[in-house]
Amino acid sequence: MSSDSPIITASAHSVPSYLNADNLGPWGIYLQQVDRVTPYLGSLARWVETLKRPKRALVVDVPIEMDDGTIAHFEGYRVQHNTSRGPGKGGVRFHQDVTLSEVMALSAWMSIKNAAVNVPYGGAKGGIRVDPRKLSRAELERVTRRYTSEINIIIGPNKDIPAPDVNTNEQVMAWMMDTYSMNEGSTSTGVVTGKPISLGGSLGRREATGRGVFVVGAEAARNLGLEIKGARIVVQGFGNVGSVAAKLFHEAGAKVIAVQDHKTALFDPAGLDVPALIEHVSHNGTIEGFRAETISAEQFWQTESEILIPAALEGQITAANAPHIKTRMVIEGANGPTTPEADDILRERNILVAPDVIANAGGVTVSYFEWVQDFSSFFWTEEEINQRLVRIMQEAFRSIWQVAQENKVTLRTAAFIIACTRILQAREMRGLYP
Length: 434
Description:
Blueprint: H1 25-37, E1 56-65, E2 71-82, E3 88-95, H2 100-116, E4 122-129, H3 137-151, E5 160-164, H4 170-184, H5 205-224, E6 232-236, H6 240-251, E7 255-260, E8 265-267, H7 274-284, E9 293-295, H8 297-301, E10 307-310, E11 329-331, H9 340-348, E12 352-354, H10 356-359, H11 362-376, H12 382-407, H13 411-430
Parallel strand pairs: 3-4, 3-5, 6-7, 6-10, 10-11, 11-12
Antiparallel strand pairs: 1-2, 2-4, 7-8, 8-9
Helix pairs in contact: 1-2, 1-13, 2-13, 3-4, 5-6, 5-11, 5-12, 11-12, 12-13
């Protein structure tokens, strides 16, 4: 078990003792966010401890036989944060730095995200501490199937529905669905979302998170009186979310002037050729080597822009770099990319932050569409899906904007007010059993 394992208790008034005060980690950051919203919950505040305790956290051993005949063990997690509003919902990530604290926080942010856009799910998340780039395809399949078998006892179409996340994709979801179905004795397409179209996946799912980032960015820009056409865009992370968001902003006439991935950062003041960059990444797995000026990480964060989109991992905008960021607004494509201290700095500098719990909720929204389609065995067109997605995202953002204006709080706090209210109302109405 990892060093951050003692995870269940959390003080209602302070960060738990097992968290380093100087480095709270993702779960500690989430607890701070809950503390900030508590004064706005009224009588529901008596239930707030519900939000600070995961409903269920499962740590599993994932042993597999490697191609060379040796036995390797990997640590896996599945955390269900809250299921008051419906079954757990959240992705599975394969990454060498995955920790229980991280998965717990991501599951909690999924609870907030699902409630903020008002889809009938609770929050869950999963992960395996593994570098998938070091595995063969056969080893990756064995890891996926063994992990699925280990968490089989807590997942299901009406209990907890996994989806793709960092370093997982349609193929991983197909293996998960097949493994679960074999154990159940019947095909269960609704146990995961983000599947291949041929196995009950939804049109538009792959682009949904990036499309949601664009929709929220466009709404936020409209409220600020900012014209998208000609706006300078900076994108950190050029995977599924960052590349799709960059493509949509590019198509809307914006200039994507800087992009960073795990290897390098590129800059072009005239605007990068986004379609060509996407093609380059599809062949090389990185933006490195693309025809543009290479800049340092420090230069990247100081690039002047109208919109900055962190679409990589959590904890990227910190108290160290927030004072030097030069942008009008931050649209969070990643989960938890901005620390609470950085949030305060950006607010003081009058930089708008559209938080992850709304900005990147497009993926789970279309995952909900996929789940509904699987249950009914009736599938919608991509145009219908995109129209429904845009409507839900716009309505959710407008509600959050209104709450922010009424309470004179940030969009993040406003999103938490709406989401936590919905979760705790459900908890209160359901009561305690037994």
